[in-house]
Amino acid sequence: MTPAPTASSTTIVAVTGATGFVGHGIVAALRRRDTRVRALARRADRTLEADAEVVQGTLQDPLSLARLVEGCSVLVHCAGAVRAPTAAAFHQINADATAVLGELCAEYGARLVLVSSLAARQPGLSPYAASKRAAEDALARMPGLDWCAVRPPLVYGPGDRATLPLFRMMRHGWLAVPAVPGARFSAIYRDDLGEAVTALVESDARGIFDVSDTAPDGYTWNDMAAAAAGHLQRRVRMIAVPRRLMQTVAAANGVVAKLTGGAPMVYPGKVRELYHIDWACGAGPLMRATGWRPRVALGQGVAQTFRWYADNDWL
To answer: Per-residue pLDDT tens for 14-62?
Structure first.
């Protein structure tokens, strides 16, 4: 496949999750191309990149979703839940809402670009992974829908709160990692992911694409520690955390969640994800389909992220 013509100011691209870490990077990449952005937000006063048009609403509100999609050329569906109290809640937010958006895109003739997750390739590991695969499967069953999906691995970069604990640990000279000999994972800098999604918006590519940075075989946790040590100019020691200890933490979190009604970040499914041996992927098919290329390798991305955290007093 070849890339389609570049989007212009007459093109409206709708985005869910635009106020989040990944979504902000996607909107920024779109605006660099002078693309008009329409964003779904819970509050109309949310600050968005370059004065994007805001549709107030949620993924559970069909009327606001219809307003979001109507008249747009492409919908980038980036919103979703990474934590939820139950498997049913994961499915409702990540899969059911995607199905509704797919139906709306088919009705209004819009292309849909789904930001899924690399976890979707292992749906048996966790409710989160299963819900992301279910979202992809729902779109695949829709006749006449023009769609594609991208599966990011670990996403990091300036402004990310999810990976901030890792950087804080490394700043103090240590890094707690799952005790999984031979484990590998891929990563992508947030700005590179934004450009990759934008390349899909501008293309006619169809299918499900893995995305990663310049290392198609991924990294080990030793590589991550070395990247941090190179920037910090100090040794970063790794602490291997036994799976049984994490399972105990997950069980305790589950008890607390039942008492408080919260949604634990670490639960049994998340432990299975963390201790899975292979989260590495390459981006060859995506690059061939769109012409996109990653620019930021791990060492450079880690250094830039550390500098941003330090400049903004997050560490």
So the answer is: 999 999 999 999 999 999 999 999 999 987 665 565 568 999 999 999 9
**What's the angle, vertex CA 262, arms to CA 260 and CA 268, rounded to 5?**
110
Look at the block and give the residue holding tokens 């901030």.
Answer: 164
Nearest residue to 95 via CA among 57, 138, 64: 138
- Please state the domain count of the chain: 1
Count the neighbouring beta carbons within 10 Å of the beta carbon of residue 23. 24
Q: What is the CATH number of the domain that holds 152?
A: 3.40.50.720
Residue 98 buriedness (CB in 10 A; 0-12 / 13-18 / 19+): buried
Supply φ then ψ for residue 154, to 5 degrees: -60, 125
Q: How far apart are CA 49 and CA 13, in angstroms?
A: 13
Q: How many angstroms from the chain centroid is the CA of residue 49?
A: 18
Q: Is residue 67 part of a domain?
A: yes
The Cα–Cα gap between 105 and 98 comes to 10
